[in-house]
Structure of D-glucuronyl C5-epimerase family protein:
Amino acid sequence: MQDADHTGWMPRFVLLLVLLVLAGCGSDAVKPLARIPRPSPAPPGSPLDSLPPKDNAIPAFRQQQYEQWLRAEIARTRKSPTVEASLRVAQLTGHISPGLEASLRKDWANANTTVAKLTGVRHDELAYVIATIRTLAAAHMLTVDRLRPTFLILRTNTHFWATAPMPAAGFRTSPDADPAVFQYYPGHGLQLQPLASWGRANAIAGACLAALRSHTKRDRCRPGAMAKSLDRLSALGAQRSGYLAFEYYFAYGTGSPPWVSGMTQATAIQALSRGYRAMGKERWRRAALSALGAFEKGPPNGISVRAPGGHHYLLYSFAPGHLVFNGGLQAVIGLRDAAALLHSKRAEKLFATGERATRREVAEYDTGAWSLYSEHGAEATLNYHSLIAGFLANLCDRVHRRVYCSAGKRFKRYEHEPTKIDLTPLHKVRWDRTSTIRFSISKISTVKVRIWGTRGMSLSRDLKVSRGVQTLSWRPPGRGRYTLRITAQGPSGPLGVEQRAIRVTLPKPKPKKKKKVEPRSRKRERDRGSDAASGRKP
């Protein structure tokens, strides 16, 4: 019996043990506290400061305390107008690491220390950059996305004005072979120039796209340089009203930073689209599509304004009434390339809307001898005129519309034509009064007016004038024959000449007054009357 009892005890023990284990797995069992990873390092002043440094995990109740503190700290810090507060918000919200926050704070302190040691122009240039960042922070516009470009500008200026020679206006540089191009704007320091930066990247990407299409040009593609440029410049963009914007961080004209340019956005989109088609990097396609948002929003957040036939894309987001021809042309070209290279219906729609307006603008910006820079504005310089002619030729190649093809050839022809001078004839020129010389010129020119005669040069004027009617006053030094010569040299060089002979006459002499002769009969009667009065006999 004992052996039988002993052999039956073991199965019952095992069964009991299994039941106990299963009971412990029920929902009513006591669970240990959850362990949550601890932020490293813990933010100063947070509830996690009281935990031992080696404790890498925190209990759930401490996590709840920490989250409440974090929300309150972010709300409190966001109210502060300082640059330091903007950096702390970026770190508390997890957008930058504590190490990066410390590095940016060091850059900010270094800039303020350096500017205090500088004098004169160097002090003023760096002070402007510091003041711009401080103003952005005070307006709560120093967002996380803008930290990278603004602090790049800050570091570049801090080092440059403390060590480099004084630059000339318009000086450009790319420190440490950075794809980002900086330009010197007197009074505003060295500023990031997004158009120049993306223009260079666009040329690199264009060479790689051409190499892809033509096996004979493969040696022109530099894939490493293209990837470096597109990635670096994309990282310097910022979110603006929901799209990727390549902003300017200095005041220009009537605009305050940050502002955007349709020409810059289009050039960036074109470069990213070319890079995507050449190498297939999806991140470049996403960046290009995100940047399209600028063309869907009106100023000041975007650059789209209504125009006859569609929309005009602004050169400056802060100037909705300033329609610049070359900027609008490049915007349309960039959108067309994005539509073709990315197979984007969105880009295609934006292109169609802009192209319809551009088609109508061509005649408006054509003076018949030169081009206008902006709507109802001044004539373009030679560089801008050549740029317009090139853009029109590019549109001709892309859309094959006669309006662009003929205008491109016509604008190019204007560069080889001399300025036309129309001189109003001079009649009845007299030496004793001032005469008006009236003439018109066909394009902006440097004009020289000379009049000379036997007595030498009597008029010499040098003028820089726009197209239209001009008048000058001239008083001849005496009678005789004179030569009038007008030369006008347009921006591209050919010289227009108009020469006339002028005859200056003496004034007609005033007629002499004739003495009145009395008739003899009347004289006799008058004589008789006087004799009778005197008592004399006739």
In short: Residues 1-36 have pLDDT under 50 and may be disordered.
